[in-house]
Amino acid sequence: MTGQNAQPTPPLTTPDEPRDLVGIGIGPFNLSLAALAQPLAGLDTVFYEQRPGFHWHPGLLIEGSSLQVPFLADLVTLADPANPWSFLSYLKTSERLFPFYFAERFHIQRAEYDAYCRWVSENLPGLHFGHQVDAVRWNAERALFEVDFTQLDAEGEAEALGRTYTRNVALGVGTAPYIPEPLKPLADAPAVPVIHASDYLLHRDRLLDAEHITVIGSGQSGAEVFLDLLGRRPVGAEKLHWLARTEAFAPMEYSKLGLEHFTPDYTRYFHALPEAVRDGLVPHQWQLHKGIDADTIAAIHDELYRRTLHGGWPDAVLTPGVSVRTAGRVATTRVELHLEHLQQGTRSRLTTDAVVLATGYRERPLGQLLGGLDAFMRRDASERPRIDERYRLVLDPSVTGHVYVQNAERHTHGVGAPDLGLAAWRSATILNSVTGKDPYPLPRRTAFTSFGLQEPQGRETVTTIGEQRSNLVRLKS
Fold first, then answer.
1. Mean pLDDT of the 350-370 span
2. Which DSSP state fits 36?
3. Any long-range contacts for 231-238 (C-beta under 8 Å, 24+ apart)?
4. Which residues pair with 201 in a beta bridge?
5. What integer pLDDT is reported at residue 266 of this predicted model?
6. What's this model's pTM, rounded to 2 decimal places?
């Protein structure tokens, strides 16, 4: 419940009939699920979101910044091209289809994607903003999930309580900005701006007033923030530092075959790998999803080069391979970063007036929300929830309903978990499972790459190394 002094009214009326599916959170992924669920006759769904309306990374909608996936990676098209909630339907409704046609753009701007999602969220039935889900429990007597929520007023204060019963739950609570431990105390104090890139636009004017600015992080967000700041600073007096842990300011892997890591084929392959192998793979695949768009890298270099045309070099330092060991305040108005170069093994200090943390996002912990299901959840060797191929939490067999997860399964489904291009396919997979009728037929093959050794049809079966060793032991005995 929100609001220390709020006195909620009696619970809202509980529906007589249970829902088929309750969605928790309305970001792009659950919005995709809701959009694909809406045309399915007889499927009773409802979606709750704590925020008063849809907003997609508002602090990073920098002018001119584009999505890193094509417009076909909208909420529905890759599962149902004829769906009325497609991006092209949005353009038609807003009478912008012909301008888009002549623009010949395959990648749209982030602000346009945000506007498209808001159009869907404002017109699609069954979405309830201003509803904070407090708990999910399994009711064994009714063989249903109980979903308790608080209805919030315009100020975010508790207005009423409610409970919904449902056969299935879909978690789409998204990720949270990640702030490294050494910088958490600084980010919490207001004197010197130390902000996460997710809030960049909200603080841009204040940042530009700072004499010296440091950007930390080598991904797309860090590059876009650095480029935006660079373009707004005086020539020869930029006073910018850009630091990154990675060995280089590297481009995103965007080759055609490289992109096949974001196909259902690779997702299935990854899910079938042993847990230890999956855990070892993800850190080495950072360039698939944490690199920088080649056009952004080119734009940064072009801007830096432009500033050398009249002699001299821009006052901008770009240093990869650096980690921030510790940090502190200097006279309450500046920040001192203690740095270590990972290859050189050297250390130094950097004093700056503002810091932008382009340090990415982490999956939101589900412990508090799913505390009522903790005794039923099955976990892996690292105490993470086990998630099956159809995006369901693996629960005790006594729980006959299912809890589906969206963008909380990188450890089981790989780098495609947060990718917008797989949103519609994952939503279709969930709805096929919920209905048991496959309303969205999905392709059997989606990549030219065969990621593992396939079993040849009509020939001998491919065995794993472990099975081969086991067979050898039996032969020796």
1. 92
2. H
3. 231/303, 232/208, 233/208, 235/307, 235/310, 235/314, 236/307, 236/312, 236/314, 236/315, 237/315, 238/307, 238/314, 238/315, 238/316
4. none
5. 97
6. 0.91
